[in-house]
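fyi for ur records
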Amino acid sequence: MVKGYNTLYLFLILVLSGCGGDDFSKPPVDDIIRDMPSGRVFSVILHDMDVKGTFFHDYYHQYKVIQEKEPGKPEEYITGWSQVSKDYFTRHADNMGMEIASRSEDGKVQKSVNPPGYNNYIGNEKYGSWHNSGGSSFWQFYGQYAFMSHMFNLATYPVRRSYYDDYRGSYYGTGRSYYGPTTSGRSYYGTNSAYTQSTRPRSAWSRNKSSFKQRVNSRTSRSGSRYGGSSSRSRGGGFGK
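which gave:
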């Protein structure tokens, strides 16, 4: 009988330890912001993510940091993997390829979710301008900043003026996330977008086969199909246990 109680006690400990008993309450992005020199313009993009474990899951993020050690000269690097809490991972499950923190030229630090480059470089006349072609207006970087076209994959996924105006007019500063126009249930930006899958074809997330990922994909597909033009998805929750 005592042996039976001990087995039950051990089982309860294992179950409770797998139900959010971690202490990853502080997001690693906070450390990046803390360690960034005062006044330096930067952007933190969710570069990749992963879920490990069969019965109990561990959650990981990897980031791309674009920073200006010299004003007007952005450069990028990829961080190592950092373990994050399930809540933080779930909150950003739709945001792979998106900017999730930044400091702009006015020194303001934001943790809002934006398409890559929209907050600091796209629409900034110091780096480029809008050009008309085929009846539409597209963003082009000046020659000395042409490397940023590659940085933000503009050759394959150009930024139309209509996208940017929608972002600035309806989303910027509101706390809502802008994922660009939605076509056939897929948004222009975000985890399951063609944009992110083309820039990260061998990502850990693309190879992940966990049931957690299947629930993310299912939820993202349902959310994307609700919007005909631009999209702003609800945040957090909805993945079940």
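The chain has a mean pLDDT of 83. thats all i got for now
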